[in-house]
Amino acid sequence: MTGIGFLGAGVIVREGTRISGLTTAASIWVVAAIGILVGVGFYLAAIVLALLSAAFTMWGSKFEVLLPSQTAVLVKIRLEPHAPTTEDDLKRFFKTYGYIVARNTVSIVGRDNGVDWTFVAIGQYKRSCASIPTLARHMEALVGVKKYQMSYARN
């Protein structure tokens, strides 16, 4: 089982804020468990596990929608080189629209043509946080914003 766990870990890929391959990794592990159950003669347990894993794979996403969640937005902003906008200004801006800047997600890169900020903003309440188009309409009100990009992030 340990070796199969390493195989499963090999299919998990992280790209920025996206993580993929978790379902595939879990499926590899479950198939190995089913194989072991059949190998030791626990046929009924193997059948039950196979049916359960098939059911969760097919219908699990429908139940996932019912679970409590928060909206997360990946934000990339380019500010002018000497813009007066600070981290507190960005936090206040997003708080106005129902978001908080997630701890330990702020990344700042200085460039010749500006300063790039990247962070994740988490909606405090799913129903009251603004949509990305609403945020985009108001983003230009921030002093010094040259360019921005926002996309929903899964959390």
Can I get a quick summary?
This protein is of the alpha+beta class and 155 residues long. Strand 1 and strand 2 (18-20) form a beta hairpin. The strands form 2 sheets. Strands 3, 4, 5, 6 and 7 form a 5-stranded antiparallel β-sheet that branches.
Tags for this entry?
elongated; 2 domains; alpha+beta; 155 residues
Characterise the protein shown here.
- This protein is an alpha+beta fold and 155 residues long.
- Helix content is 43%, strand content 26%.
- The protein is built from five helices and seven strands; from the N terminus they run H-E-E-H-H-E-H-E-E-E-H-E.
- The protein has helices at 2-10, 22-39, 43-64, 87-96, 132-139; strands at residues 13-15, 18-20, 72-79, 99-101, 107-111, 114-123, 145-153.
- The strands form two sheets. Strands 3, 4, 5, 6 and 7 form a five-stranded antiparallel sheet that branches. A two-stranded antiparallel ribbon has the order 1-2.
- The longest helix has 22 residues, at 43-64.
- The two termini are 29 Å apart.
Q: Which residue ranges are poorly predicted, with pLDDT under 50 across at least 5 consecutive positions? A: none
The level 1 CATH classification of the largest domain is: Alpha Beta
Which architecture name of the largest domain does CATH use? Answer: 2-Layer Sandwich
Q: Which structural class best describes the helix and strand composition?
A: alpha+beta
Shape: elongated
Tell me the total number of β-strands.
7
Mean pLDDT over all positions? 85
Rg, alpha carbons: 22 Å
> What is the chain-wise order of helices and strands?
HEEHHEHEEEHE
Main pleated-sheet profile: 5 strands, antiparallel
The CATH topology of the largest domain corresponds to Alpha-Beta Plaits
Span of the ends, CA to CA: 29 Å
